[in-house]
């Protein structure tokens, strides 16, 4: 018995998060957008005969990731040269960050892709690299032209008069000038990135002075950064969507979450080392803070990376929030 042909073909690209995964499939007469969560799947169809436009534009994400991986490689490399032999731990981290930077550069520029119909415009988050996005859009364009006919631009005499457009204007924050959009106030983001910079400074001072009170201040600013990042994304995401400010806020949240997981791991390690302190919370917290002072090479490298990342993202985000507030 012959096997039935597959009705859908998966297009290249995938978007994944902790609890979410998105994929794009090509059917006979439409595209199928599939979003998987832990409890359900959501489907959305884009028929080729209804597609009006395919839009691709570069974004600043490529430069942010280049600065992130390059900064980590630079910090751990400088530490390896300054501190001397560390059992090849710092050298290994430098190699890993360098390979991540090289792989990122080889993949090419980052981009955003949108599909436009008469009733909706959807961002295809599965396409984040320009080279791959061009191939996928060429396939979609071929199917759309097959369903609608080849697009032929109108003659010059039939075209409506063109509107005046400022070529140098930045359209990324067009929503900021929309009178129907909620007013954007950058104060919350400015506080967030100021706290992130403060957290990075406390982390750097901890590496130098090795005092438990600096570990306590670093932990407190980390928790504050997490709360402010979530609040800023909830309150300001709609007004500043698609801007460098939102990207920096997301990266700050991701870095703070990773730092939080690492801090929680150190807390659990302190609990396992001192089971007799299970109900003496103050002594247990003191043991947790002392771990930051007596950390080994691997933990020192991670603490250095988190501090450098907080400083870099805080500076970029604070500059983006200041510029966004002036528009």
Keywords:
transmembrane helix, alpha+beta, membrane, 3 domains, 327 residues, transmembrane, 3-stranded antiparallel beta sheet
Q: What Rg do the Cα atoms give?
A: 25 Å
What composes the largest sheet?
Answer: 5 strands, antiparallel
What is the general shape? Answer: elongated
Q: Give the SSE order as H and E letters.
A: EEEEEEHHEEHHHHHH
End-to-end distance = 66 Å
Find the structural class using helix and strand composition.
alpha+beta
Helix fraction?
55-70%
Low-confidence stretches: 163-181
Number of helices: 8
* Beta strands, count: 8
Number of domains: 3
Q: What fraction strand?
A: 5-15%
On the 0-100 scale, what is the average pLDDT? 78
What is the strand and helix layout of this fold?
Blueprint (H helix, E strand, L loop, with lengths): L8 E2 L4 E2 L3 E7 L3 E8 L3 E7 L5 E6 L2 H23 L5 H19 L3 E6 L4 E3 L6 H19 L38 H23 L2 H25 L7 H30 L7 H13 L3 H29 L2
Antiparallel strand pairs: 1-3, 2-3, 3-4, 4-5, 6-7, 7-8
Helix pairs in contact: 1-2, 1-8, 4-5, 4-8, 5-6, 5-7, 6-7, 6-8
């Amino acid at each position: 018995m012959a096997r039935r042909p597959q009705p859908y073909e998966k297009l290249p690209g995938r978007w994944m998060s902790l609890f979410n995964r998105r994929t794009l499939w090509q059917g006979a007469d439409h595209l199928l957008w599939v979003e998987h969560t832990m409890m359900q799947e959501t489907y959305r169809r884009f028929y080729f005969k209804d597609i009006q436009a395919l839009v691709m534009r570069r974004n600043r994400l490529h430069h942010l990731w280049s600065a992130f991986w390059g900064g980590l490689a630079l910090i751990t490399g400088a530490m390896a040269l300054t501190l001397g032999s560390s059992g090849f731990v710092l050298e290994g981290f430098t190699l890993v960050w360098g390979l991540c930077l090289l792989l990122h550069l080889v993949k090419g520029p980052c981009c955003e892709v949108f599909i436009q119909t008469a009733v909706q415009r959807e961002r295809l988050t599965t396409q984040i690299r320009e080279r791959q996005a061009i191939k996928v859009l060429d396939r979609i364009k071929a199917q759309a032209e097959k369903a609608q006919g080849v697009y032929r631009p109108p003659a010059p005499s039939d075209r409506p008069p063109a509107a005046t457009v400022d070529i140098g204007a930045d359209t990324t924050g067009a929503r900021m000038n929309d009178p129907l959009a909620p007013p954007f106030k950058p104060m919350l983001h400015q506080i967030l990135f100021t706290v992130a910079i403060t957290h990075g400074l406390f982390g750097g001072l901890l590496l130098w002075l090795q005092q438990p009170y600096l570990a306590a201040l670093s932990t407190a600013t980390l928790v504050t950064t997490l709360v402010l990042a979530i609040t800023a994304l909830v309150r300001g995401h709609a007004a500043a969507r698609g801007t460098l400010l939102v990207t920096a806020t997301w990266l700050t949240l991701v870095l703070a979450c990773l730092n939080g997981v690492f801090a929680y791991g150190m807390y659990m390690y302190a609990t396992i080392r001192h089971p007799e302190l299970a109900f003496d919370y103050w002594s247990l917290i003191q043991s947790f803070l002392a771990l930051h002072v007596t950390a080994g090479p691997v933990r020192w490298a991670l603490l250095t990376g988190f501090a450098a990342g907080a400083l870099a993202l805080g500076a970029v985000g604070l500059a983006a929030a200041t510029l966004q507030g002036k528009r």
